[in-house]
Amino acid sequence: MLNALFGKKTTMPAKDDALPGRADPIPTAEEHFLFHRPLKSPVPEGMEEATFGMGCFWGVERKFWQLDGVWLTMVGYSAGLTPNPTYKETCTGMTGQNEVVRVIYDPAVITYDDLLKVFWEGHDPTQGDRQGNDVGTQYRSGIYTYTDAQAEAAEASREVYAESLRGAGYGPITTEIKPATEFYFAEDYHQQYLAKNPGGYCGIGGTGVTCPIGLKA
């Protein structure tokens, strides 16, 4: 994913060094390729939102759109410095932005703990600024929370999963847990990329260690 072109950037830029970006959003898709709902829909009443970074956002989005209770998914950039960045800018490592997936879901059907379980098991959260062959700060592991309850659940799940990973011989978790900042939509072709390109590459992969949360009774 353009690593060879832009180099492997694993150091977050200082604010003064970050690319300037732009005031206006970059163009993106009008609707979800699979769900045929407006991609910029407001969160419907009774539903909630969650944002995760866990490597290449193509594969991450697919993990979440496949879940019952997920109403909408979208990919973009967040948790960084440059406003309204492009994909090429993000790949330079000079925006500080992470490749993330924003999920709108029905908590009556799927809980936040269920989403956290998919998050932890769907990638290796001990790899730092990397997932597989994808290297750079834009591939870092992150949970970006919207409420105090989400923050508490995320922190608790990290502690639980860290113990499971230690028992399996893995190192410390590097996942950042922070309040969600502005979400910037990625370009049209990135939205639901693996639905449009089923054979497309994505470097994420889990550890094979089960996360003991989000299990329904």
UniProtKB/TrEMBL annotation:
Peptide methionine sulphoxide reductase MsrA domain sequence ranges: 49-202
UniProt cross-references to SUPFAM superfamilies, sorted A to Z: Peptide methionine sulfoxide reductase
EC numbers for this chain: 1.8.4.11
Coiled-coil ranges per UniProt: none
Residues forming the catalytic site: 56
Pfam families tied to this protein: PMSR
Keywords tagged on the record: Oxidoreductase
GO molecular function terms attached to this record: peptide-methionine (S)-S-oxide reductase activity
Annotated catalysed reactions: L-methionyl-[protein] + [thioredoxin]-disulfide + H2O = L-methionyl-(S)-S-oxide-[protein] + [thioredoxin]-dithiol; [thioredoxin]-disulfide + L-methionine + H2O = L-methionine (S)-S-oxide + [thioredoxin]-dithiol
InterPro entries from the UniProt entry: Met_Sox_Rdtase_MsrA_dom, Met_Sox_Rdtase_MsrA_sf, MsrA_MetSO_reductase
Enzyme's top EC category: oxidoreductase
PANTHER family linked: MITOCHONDRIAL PEPTIDE METHIONINE SULFOXIDE REDUCTASE
Family recorded in the similarity comment: Belongs to the MsrA Met sulfoxide reductase family.
Described function: Has an important function as a repair enzyme for proteins that have been inactivated by oxidation. Catalyzes the reversible oxidation-reduction of methionine sulfoxide in proteins to methionine.
Name this protein carries in UniProt: Peptide methionine sulfoxide reductase MsrA
